[in-house]
Design goal:
The protein is mainly α and 131 residues long. It has one domain. It contains 5 helices and no strands. Helix 2 packs antiparallel against helix 5 and helix 4 packs antiparallel against helix 5. It starts with a helix and ends in a 13-residue tail after the last helix.
């Protein structure tokens, strides 16, 4: 109990809202993620150290997901085009696998971040690729 009294209070509501917006990305086709990353950028400089680590984590998750999704979509599209010639099938499969892996990776990262947020702890490695 004294451990929580030693720490200054930081608002966990807005980071939780951003996590929630990230979770809602499937039904809203990443529109909520865009809103969430704007909120994270807008609030990371004024947040305390624990919540700033969550904002940094959410921003990093967004950019890493976008770049891998772009790679997966490009492979998928070129694979679709070249599958007429049968040489695009491996690219098509690779694109689908990358897109599936990015979505799984994205939601696992969000779940791990929410666990740290619920425990009122900073995210330990916000710039790491894994969890």
């Amino acid at each position: 109990m004294t451990e929580t009294l030693d720490r200054p209070h930081e608002d966990r509501v807005l980071p939780a809202v951003v996590y929630g917006l990230y979770i809602l990305s499937i039904p809203f086709v990443w529109l909520t993620v865009l809103i969430g990353v704007v909120l994270a950028y807008a609030n990371r400089d004024t947040a305390g150290p624990r919540m700033a680590s969550h904002y940094q984590f959410l921003i990093q998750t967004f950019w890493k997901s976008i770049w891998w999704a772009v790679i997966g979509v490009v492979l998928f599209v070129f694979g679709l085009i070249f599958s007429v010639l049968l040489i695009g099938i491996p690219m098509l499969i690779a694109g689908c696998l990358i897109l599936a892996a990015v979505h799984i990776w994205f939601y696992v990262r969000i779940a791990v971040g929410l666990i740290y947020l619920a425990q009122d702890e900073p995210y330990p490695r916000p710039d790491a690729w894994l969890f």
